[in-house]
């Protein structure tokens, strides 16, 4: 848990080892197969972060390492190269980025894989190339926003994990340029693993915001709501930030009560999903509804209602009720979202 | 999850209601009795935070409400009044604080209970009164550091919860006085529920750092370590911050592998504990050890070893091995700490 980092062995640890002795894997896909968290998009990262074995020269050495590969990010979009009809790659070599205005001075080291150092770097793409309507996977090169990338499933699980990590880390660095305590300027340290204030020398570490997202249900019905900004017809699990002085279970009960007026009994942990919007940890829970009468917080929710298991199963299958134009009346977030996993797990009786 | 807050009904919601219509309780102690998280010190908070129903006048009205009660905090210490031989109270009235240099301009509203608004306020006590060696519960009034308060068990579960919440919130405000994005000054909003930059108007919300703390074990032994700063003989569960792009389970496996070289298989959630040092969420897990040979990170840990179930049970009972002076060779963190709960739960076969 210590966040110091000894300079002593760092140079001998970082780059030579990356190439000559690939780090021993500590995340074995086998035993994770049945783990709900491991099935989430963005949870496939397998890099050795070596956060404690970094010094002032680590970043420069990593950037200029022949084996280094970069994830190039601009304004919530990631740069992709086409590798097949429905597949893409988000890794670029140093030379492969030179045409794209890479900001190597703002690059961060994510860690090392068997193939060498992996970094994330901000690039400045033309606004034109960030226009979704213009994006075409048939083109050899293009930019795609994170949500679309996650929905299309064009990357490998590991690439999604590294993209989430890089996107969250770059987003944090971009908004942590000053010391919140004294107002002084901060500079990147440990190849991006932290920042430090040049005035008061306070260390600042990447922020991750813990959010509880909960499927509240009784025997036959689950509670779903829609925020004012949701597309028409979309319903999802209730969610909210864990506040100071709360346990996970307390946050589930408070948020559910504030938004729907429903009191919650037993709460069970289901899974977590890292979420790069901008740097969130979604903590998925199942909760037992203690009552039926909904008192919606109109400031928070556009609607909040009960769905029976049969309704949910039909909607998941695309057989739900339709409106006058034959459009589905209800739908849930896409499979990439933990909300979808919670709803599906409940409907299928997994939990 | 929205963090706007409508001014419309706020004045009609906040203070009048607090006094005339106590908020409907949504945390029922009954169904929480068996919940590991609910048994933790600092997890007993029951206030209605009403974070969304606060406006510019809420704080002033709350401070001057006759029924308002304040938790007075200075430099990691809380002010206490004696209520019995082994019991104390941490709530003060506005008048009760005037002699203690209260900084009402920095007070934060925690929420409302059946008895009215509850706030936390920084005070400036004499260094003398912060000297532990001078503290004496027999005195009618005194200051005690948070850890000692938690260890002594002198407060009610609810008071511990409110203290943790107030301490974490004040600690965050004290270190969030400038905008980390633009360097501008920030000001408190929503009676302390957020801060806002006067220059770029960015909202800043209280930060909670998610830490995984895990008891890694095989059938008969558990893995415990000691940081360099631990008192001699103390061993605890390994722990570390959840980093961007990680699930809870991944963080457990990475931290355990980095610190001990042990790979972890199945990971199960056990409980969470809010922890006011300064604003942390401890996420307690049980993890399955996949191997036996420890490769300790010497920068992180002073020692790391296996303890058999019998050794753990003996140490918990105070019947562990002793050194030459008859002092216990090993001990674990006090019962107030989630680490103690994890070790005890494993040793007693609860999980």
Q: Termini separation of chain A (Å)?
A: 33 Å
Share in helix of chain A: 10-25%
The amount of beta strand of chain A, in percent, is 25-35%
Rg of Cα set of chain A:
22 Å
Shape of chain A: globular
Number of helices of chain A: 10
**Sheet bearing the most strands of chain A, described?**
6 strands, mixed
Structural class of chain A: alpha+beta
Number of strands of chain A: 15
Low-confidence stretches of chain A: 1-20
Mean residue pLDDT of chain A: 89
Biggest interface: chains and residue counts? A-B, 87 and 88 residues
* Helix-strand sequence of chain A: HHHHEEEHEEEHHEEEEEEHEEEHH
Oligomer: homodimer
Would you give an account of this structure?
2 copies of one chain form a homodimer. The first copy, chain A, has helices at 10-13, 15-20, 29-32, 58-63, 94-97, 146-152, 157-174, 248-260, 309-317, 338-347; strands at residues 69-74, 77-82, 88-89, 108-113, 116-122, 141-145, 186-189, 194-197, 203-204, 209-217, 221-227, 238-241, 264-275, 280-289, 301-308. Chain A contains 10 helices and 15 strands. Residues 1-20 of chain A have low confidence and may be disordered. With 351 residues, chain A is α+β, with helices and mostly antiparallel strands. In chain A, a hairpin with a 4-residue loop joins strand 7 (186-189) and strand 8. The first copy, chain A, starts with 9 loop residues before the first helix and ends with a helix. In chain A, the strands form 3 sheets. In chain A, strands 1, 2, 3, 4, 5 and 6 form a 6-stranded mixed sheet that branches. In chain A, strands 10, 11, 12, 13, 14 and 15 form a 6-stranded mixed sheet that branches. A 3-stranded antiparallel sheet of chain A has the order 7-8-9, with no helix packed on it. In chain A, helix 9 crosses helix 10 (338-347). Chains A and B meet through helix 7, strand 10, strand 12, helix 8 and strand 13 of A and helix 7, strand 10, strand 12, helix 8 and strand 13 of B.
